[in-house]
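Hi Y.,

Following your request, here is the sequence exactly as I used it, all 167 residues.
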Amino acid sequence: MIFVTVGSRFYQFNRLFQKLDELYDDGTLSEPMFAQIGASTYHPRNYEFREFISPEEFDQRIAEADIIVSHGASGSIMKALNAGKKVIAVTRLEKYGEHINDHQIQNNEAFASNGLVLMADPELTDLADCFRKIYERKDGLRHWENKDPMAIVNKIDEFIQENWDEQ
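Below is the corresponding structure, written out as C-alpha cells. Let me know if you'd prefer a different format.
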C-alpha cells in the first residue's frame, strides 16, 4: 500500500497526482494507493483519494502503508520515518503555485543527504525511478532508528545554516 500526503495548506499539487496517474497508466505502479490531495483540483483516476483527512486517519494510513510519498514538510516526513516507512519526498514549487517559495527543496535535500528518504527531482522527472529503486530494494535508505525526535530537525537546521551561509 502506498500513502501520499501533501498536507493541509491551501495550495494545489496537481502535477504530482497527474504524474502518479501516469505511472499507473504505464504500469510502473499497480499496488493500491490512497492519496490525501489537499486543495488540488485534479482528481486521480487510478487510486483512492480524499482532500483532507483527520490526524487519526493520517496516523492509520501511515501505519498501513509500506511506502509514503510526502511533500517536503518535516512533520509528515518525520511521522513516516518514525513509523519505519520508506519515504519518497516530492517538492512543491513556487513557480507552479504549489507553495509560497521553494523551501521544500532544502528540506528534502537534507533528509536525502542523510539517506533517510529518496528525493524525487523537483520536476518529478525521476519519480518512476524512485519507485523502481524501492521495489528492487536498491534504495540505499537507512531506517530511522534514532530515539531523539529532534535529531533530524537539528540535522536539517545545520544543513540549511551551512547552505544559507554560502549564499
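The helical segments are 14-25, 55-64, 74-82, 103-113, 127-135, 151-166.

Thanks again,
Q.
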